[in-house]
Automatic annotation (TrEMBL):
InterPro entries: MBL_Glyoxalase_II (IPR051453), Metallo-B-lactamas (IPR001279), RibonucZ/Hydroxyglut_hydro (IPR036866). This is MBL fold metallo-hydrolase. Its cofactor is Zn(2+). PANTHER family: HYDROXYACYLGLUTATHIONE HYDROLASE GLOC. Keywords: Hydrolase, Metal-binding, Zinc. Residues 12-192 form the Metallo-beta-lactamase domain. GO terms for molecular function: hydrolase activity; metal ion binding.
Length: 211
């Protein structure tokens, strides 16, 4: 199994493609530039199985409709943000994209609980990591040694908490309880910016020092 980071849109939101040797794949956070993403997937002859969202902010959901329709695949989101997809006020597009607010049809599957998840030949764990937003999720691929953290944890930083439903103390607790307990060599695939590791963030992230 391997993964690929694809920055999309003006905010360079990281979309991740996780693929198996049979070329089946999962898509995480198709945030923008749907046609570009679809072309890349087709060019590589990948077979998408599902779209998983770390959270429902506009820059992480902007290409959901295009990609979902192109491959006829289901969308997964946490229960606390299931209404955000179709609500520009909640997903932030009303504030940041006044001319083109984003409205996405309801997700096919609502994630209500943490724990192990399997889809096709993919197996991973789902962590609820609120703070940046109330329904933020992280997806941990233990055997492969990486976690897709969305906008919870970045290289040298953490997610902003000044948007609706944000809570800084909750975010730091989520990172400490759910992410920093992972092996230090675990790769952190963040929603923006470069890949880092749990160990590097424990050692040098100024937002986590002293916690």
């Amino acid at each position: 199994m391997k993964w690929q980071q694809i920055p999309l849109g003006s905010l360079q939101t990281n979309c991740y493609i996780v693929e198996n040797p049979d070329r089946s794949c999962l898509i995480f956070d198709p945030g923008s530039e749907g046609k570009k993403l679809i072309h890349l997937l087709n060019q590589r002859k990948l077979k998408p199985c599902a779209i998983f969202l770390t959270h429902a902010h506009f820059d992480h959901i902007g290409a959901v409709t295009e990609v979902r329709e192109a491959f006829q695949i289901p969308v997964y989101i946490h229960k606390q943000e299931e209404k955000w997809l179709a609500d520009p006020a909640l997903n932030g597009s009303q504030l940041f994209m006044v001319q083109n607010p984003i409205k996405v049809n309801d997700a096919d599957h609502i994630i209500k609980n943490e724990g192990a998840m399997e889809i096709n030949d993919f197996a991973f764990s789902v962590f609820h990591t609120p703070g940046h937003s109330p329904g933020s999720l992280s997806y941990y691929f233990e055997q492969e040694g990486f976690v897709i953290s969305g906008d919870a944890l970045f290289q040298g930083s953490v997610g902003r908490t000044d948007l609706p439903g944000g809570n800084n103390s909750q975010l730091i607790k989520s990172i400490h309880d759910k992410l920093l307990n992972l092996p230090e060599d675990t790769y952190v695939l963040s929603g923006h910016g470069p890949v880092t590791t749990i160990g590097d963030e424990m050692d040098s992230n100024p937002f986590l020092n002293g916690f």
